[in-house]
Amino acid sequence: AADKIYLIPQDFFAELCEQIIQHLNHKIPGVNTAELCQRIQTSGIEINVGDLAKIVNIVSFLFSTAASNNLSTEELITTLGNSVSTLPKHAVQVIRHVWNEQGKSISVSEDERSMATVGQFVDIKWKLGVAMSSDTCRSLKYPYVTVTLKVADPSGQITDKSFEMTIPQFKNFFRQFKEMAAVLETV
User: Fold this and answer.
1) Do 177 and 104 lie in a common domain?
2) What residue stretch is flagged as signal peptide (predicted)?
3) Are 68 and 31 in contact (CB under 8 A)?
4) Structural domain containing residue 66
5) What is the largest CA-CA distance in the chain?
6) Is 101 in the same domain as 141?
7) Where are the beta strands (DSSP E) in the chain?
8) Coil, helix or strand for 8?
9) Could you list the pLDDT tens digit for every one of the 187 residues in the chain?
10) In Å, how far are 8, 25, 53, 66, 184 from 40, measured between CA atoms?
C-alpha cells in the first residue's frame, strides 16, 4: 500500500492525515475513505477504496505508535527514513508537518486502547420498499425495510453495513430499541 501513496496528491494526503489525527483524538468517529476516494478519483487519480483504506491503516498505525512511544517530530522522521524508504517526499513532508502541529495532542492511554477493539456507530438510514415481482414469482407484493448502518471500525475506517428485514422483524427491532431507550432513561 505504501506504493499507492505516490498516487495521492499532497493536499488529499494532508487531509487524510488530519482526519486520522482527529480520529485518534476522538473528535471524529473515523476516516470516510469512500467519500475521500471518490473525491480523489474525481480529480483524475486512479485509486480504489481498498488501497486507500490500507493507507489509512498504515498512517493511523504510524501516528498511534509514535504517540504511544512519545516520539518527537525529528525522531518520527528519522525512524521513517530508517524503516520506510518507499515513502514519497511529499508524504514525508505532510507527516512531518501534521505531527509537528498536532502530534502531541494524541493521548493513547491503556483504557482507550482496550476500548478501541469495538467499532463505533456513526449513522443509520432506512427505507421501506415493496418487492413487486421476481423472475420466479409474478406477484410478490412483499414489503421490507432496508437498514444501512454507518460504522467506524477500531482503525477508523468507516464502512456501511446494510441488511433487509421483514415487517415483523422490523417491529421486533424497533421494540428492542424502545427497551434500550427505556433502560437508558433509568441510568
Assistant:
1) no
2) none
3) no
4) 2-116
5) 69
6) no
7) 120-131, 142-152, 158-166
8) coil
9) 667 788 888 899 999 999 988 888 888 888 888 888 899 999 988 888 888 888 888 888 888 888 888 888 888 888 777 665 567 888 888 988 998 888 777 765 544 544 445 677 888 999 998 887 777 777 777 888 999 988 887 666 788 889 999 889 999 988 998 988 888 888 7
10) 8, 25, 13, 27, 41
2/74 Cα distance (integer angstroms)? 21
> 131 and 61, same structural domain?
no
Supply the DSSP string of 74-127, one letter for each residue.
HHHHHHHHHH-TTS-HHHHHHHHHHHHHHGGG----HHHHHHTTS-EEEEEEEE
Contact 140, 134 (CB under 8 A): yes
Place of cell 501534521: 98
Q: What is the CATH number of the domain that holds 165?
A: 3.10.450
Please check whether residues 108 and 141 belong to one and the same domain. no
SS3 content of the chain, % helix, strand, coil (to 5): 55, 20, 25
Strands (DSSP E) contained in 28-88 are none
Quote the pTM value.
0.62
CB atoms within 10 A of CB 160: 12
Adjacent-strand bridge partners of 150: 123, 160
Residue that finishes a domain, picked among 116, 132, 166: 116
